[in-house]
UniProtKB/TrEMBL annotation:
It catalyses: 5-amino-1-(5-phospho-D-ribosyl)imidazole-4-carboxylate + L-aspartate + ATP = (2S)-2-[5-amino-1-(5-phospho-beta-D-ribosyl)imidazole-4-carboxamido]succinate + ADP + phosphate + 2 H(+). This is Phosphoribosylaminoimidazole-succinocarboxamide synthase. Pathway: Purine metabolism; IMP biosynthesis via de novo pathway; 5-amino-1-(5-phospho-D-ribosyl)imidazole-4-carboxamide from 5-amino-1-(5-phospho-D-ribosyl)imidazole-4-carboxylate: step 1/2. Keywords: ATP-binding, Ligase, Nucleotide-binding, Purine biosynthesis. Residues 13-279 form the SAICAR synthetase/ADE2 N-terminal domain. The keyword Cell inner membrane does not apply. It comes from Microbacterium lacus. SUPFAM superfamilies: SAICAR synthase-like (SSF56104). NCBIfam families: PRK13961.1 (NF010568), purC (TIGR00081). Belongs to the SAICAR synthetase family. The keyword Nucleotide-binding applies. Its EC number is 6.3.2.6. InterPro entries: SAICAR_synt/ADE2_N, SAICAR_synth, SAICAR_synthetase_CS.
Length: 308
């Protein structure tokens, strides 16, 4: 599916690497939107480039996973508080209101959400050491400035989950890992603490749910925005295979190589293939059919392991 689409009732306003955003088509040109339609395409990005071709039905899988997590997290209990999210009201109760607004052409891959004042911080939580965290640790023994014990290997579990924020770069630029102190400078001490506490809390809850299903939630990224009442609200996508690294717990325990330990349910297959076949200059090469098929199969497997 390419974008933007002509959708009845909606006007296209923005396309990110993966999602296309629409506002109601009767909205005055400069008026702030109250709600938006977020459509997840099948586009896949790695190293900040959108690749060709897309992964069949990826947008539907991402949306299904996000909705599943939003619903679970919204409900408190067992000492956990409910996490407010950007889905338009009643979704959790299963009322058919918001779904009526979703055009057939994007059904299954779209959500109607409250337009929030987004925080410019990608709220990353890591429970395990890998990726850009591992790269920094190898050089300095830290991740986003947080000192870690010596002697950790790629893929190791951290003593406790850590909040490692990134500054959300403007379109086309790389997000930049930043320290907590820098986060405080950007959003203020109170908001920085709120983002950190919410992120660690959601990660811990989700990691436990994954564990019950034989999955390790190695790391993940959240985005938050404030709603009209100023409530910090979970937005964008949540705990999907695009925003998170999920590994098979059994493979992690028994694997003898980093690749075997970190058998992932996400686009790591794409990242690995690209890293081996592209020098990161110019346009990335087209993904081979078997990489596309393997990635699609992993996305589907994650959804069934989590939700069935
Ligand atoms: P970029 O926007 O830099 O391209 P991206 O590739 O992650 O980043 P997408 O995920 O494709 O972008 O697009 C989704 C966009 O919508 C993000 O910029 C995200 O911050 C924004 N967004 C998500 N939920 C909301 C919301 N409820 N209100 C306002 N903006 C939102
Ligand atoms: Mg995004």
């Amino acid at each position: 599916m390419s974008s933007p689409l002509d959708l009845p009732g909606w006007r296209h306003v923005y396309s990110g690497k993966v999602r296309d955003l629409y506002v109601p088509d009767d909205l005055e040109p400069d008026a702030p939107a109250e709600r938006m339609l977020v459509v997840a395409s099948d586009r896949v990005s790695a190293f900040d480039h959108v690749l060709e071709p897309g992964i069949p039905d990826k947008g539907v899988l991402l949306t299904t996973l996000s909705l599943w997590w939003f619903d679970r997290l919204a409900v408190g209990g067992d000492g956990a508080r409910g996490i407010p999210n950007h889905l338009v009201a009643d979704h959790v109760l299963g009322a058919d209101g918001p779904r009526e607004l979703i055009p057939d052409a994007v059904s299954g891959r779209a959500m109607v959400v409250k337009a929030l004042e987004m925080q410019p911080i990608e709220c990353v939580v890591r429970g395990y050491l890998t990726g850009s965290g591992w790269a920094e640790y190898k050089m300095d023994g830290t991740v986003c400035g947080i000192p870690l014990p010596a002697g950790l290997a790629n893929g190791d579990r951290l003593p406790e989950p850590i909040f490692t924020p990134a500054f959300k770069a403007p379109m086309g630029e790389h997000d930049e890992n930043i320290s907590f102190e820098r986060t405080v400078e950007i959003v203020g001490a109170e908001t920085a603490a709120e983002l950190r506490d919410l992120s660690l809390e959601i990660y811990t809850r989700a990691a436990r749910i994954g564990e019950e299903r034989g999955l390790i939630l190695a790391d993940t990224k959240f985005e938050f925005g404030r709603d009209e009442q100023g409530v910090m609200t979970l937005a964008d996508e949540v705990l999907t295979s695009d925003s998170s690294r999920y590994w098979d717990a059994e493979a992690w325990r028994t694997g003898t190589t980093p690749a075997a330990r970190m058998a992932s349910f996400d686009k790591q297959i794409v990242r690995d293939w690209l890293a081996a076949n592209w020098d990161k200059t110019g346009t990335p090469p087209e993904l081979p059919a078997e990489i596309v098929a393997q990635t699609a199969a992993r996305y589907r497997e994650l959804l069934s392991r989590l939700t069935s």
